[in-house]
Predict the 3D structure of the following.
Amino acid sequence: MTEIHTPRLLLRHWQEDDLVPMADINADPVVMRWTGDGSVLDLEQTAQAIERWEEEWDEEGFGLFAVELLGSGELAGFAGLSVPEYLPEALPCVEISWRLGRQFWGQGYASEAAQAVLEFALVDRGLDRVLAIDRLGNEASQNVVNKLGMVFERETSHPEFGHALTVHSIDLTEYQA
């Protein structure tokens, strides 16, 4: 089982106890406003999402990690890798993403987790290139993308919801641990 330790975080596979705290994060409209069509997810939808995330580990050899605070053991959210099938024009590719509960914002946790995931992608999993696909206007996410050293590639539109997206990338030759 793959686990990543950072100074303040444990990135790990999902456990049964993660469902309720992740459902609470997914039920927050402020957290979810930048995701998909902005809809919140309930407990059942969150359970289905976690199941899909775990299946991706089996199918792809990577996926979304549960992000746990080392100091308290609290679930802060997720960070990890996925195949962005919602954006066929970008395929084949791997996307880095993260979602943390609001109480964990502004403390550097997203950047810390994303940096660990990027290193995992490029060094451990041997990927040549990783994308970050964000909704235009999501400044907090853009700050993380910048800290990762990713470069702007293009703007596009979400094929289903129509909102503007930005695509950033980094490849192994640009990556500095």
Summary: Residues 65 and 116 are 11 Å apart (CA to CA). The chain has five helices and eight strands. The longest strand covers residues 75-82. The beta strands are 4-5, 9-12, 64-69, 75-82, 95-100, 129-135, 151-157, 164-171.
